[in-house]
Q: What sequence folds into this?
């Protein structure tokens, strides 16, 4: 849901405001640089936020939130390299234009258990 997405956004923004988290992927052209909200992509959201938050429980982010299940109304297909900020804004916009209450989206990174992928 958009509410769950906003929960993750708030967690990420707080972490980035209080910590210098550096990109350490050997595949990233930004290796060594400090992550910022404006430049953050799903390539960074997954390893720096989703996986650490859900590591102990070995579950998906949606399960980790522990809220009641909400079947998705929409499947979200997106490029992991797109700014996460833009993805959040786009889904907020889509939800408001479609007047979806509650707006429920399937986003693979958040719905799938990232610890159980092959």
A:
């Amino acid at each position: 849901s958009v509410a769950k997405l906003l929960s993750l956004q708030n967690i990420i923004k707080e972490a980035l405001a209080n910590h210098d988290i550096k990109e350490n992927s050997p595949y990233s052209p930004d290796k060594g640089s400090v992550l910022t909200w404006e430049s953050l992509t799903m390539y960074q959201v997954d390893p720096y936020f989703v996986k650490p938050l859900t590591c102990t429980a070995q579950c998906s982010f949606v399960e980790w939130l522990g809220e009641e299940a909400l079947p998705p109304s929409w499947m979200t297909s997106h490029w992991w390299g797109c700014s996460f900020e833009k993805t959040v804004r786009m889904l907020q916009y889509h939800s408001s234009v479609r007047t979806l209450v509650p707006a429920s989206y399937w986003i693979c990174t958040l719905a799938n258990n990232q610890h159980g992928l092959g």
Observations:
- Residues 8 and 49 are 8 Å apart (CA to CA).
- Residues 2-18 form the longest helix (17 residues).
- DSSP finds five helices and two strands in the chain.
- The helical segments are 2-18, 42-54, 61-65, 84-97, 108-111.
